Amino acid sequence: MLKASDVVLDKKTEKFAVNYADSLKKRGRLNRLNAVDFSPPSGRSKVGVAEVPEEYLDCLEKFPKGIRDLKDGVTVDIYSFKKGDESKLSLMGFFDISMSNHEKVTVVEYSQFGSIICNRKHLKFGIGCRLMMRIIRQRKGAKINTPQQITASVIFRKAEVNYSMQTFGITGPGVGGLNQAGALTEDTYNKFITEVSNMIVKAYDEDSRYIINPQPLFLKRK
Hints:
Radius of gyration: 17 Å
Structural class: alpha+beta
Mean pLDDT: 88
Number of strands: 11
Order of helices and strands: EHEEEHEEHEEEHEE
């Protein structure tokens, strides 16, 4: 599990990340989409368009455009967030979350991803789905270090956990079933893994009706 607080972005990448999060938030509020497009600085006035800082403009044409451009593989990454990490949660599409001093949020990211080299830096892009688990209450003896432990604690009534599940960089049939929220149950995590796997496989079909728009993965380190 990667601690989000351990991920430190350089100033240029942080500027890109802030622009991206701002655009994603605006677009999500207007039409509930899960992706933004990219353009030179002049495009910032357009809703749903993230401004690419000058330092990355020469790489704009190399940004992945489809699922077959994401050649690095499929991974399941787990991130841990604490108070002070709210801005990094926004990079994953989870906004307006205020955490208490002792609260912990776990995000499972299942992604098909790829990368480009720009200014001697690796920029990661991907599509997939994220499962955010927020622990509301926990009892003595509850283990909450991994998604499996969190699920087990819910099953044995040692913890109460709310979740939010949302796709990123992919829209189309089947996506609606993954954009869910509610109280975590013993089936939630297994359903998440199964349905995202099926979604990515179907996205490769020649007659696929999914719309693919790879998004930057600023926290990914693999």
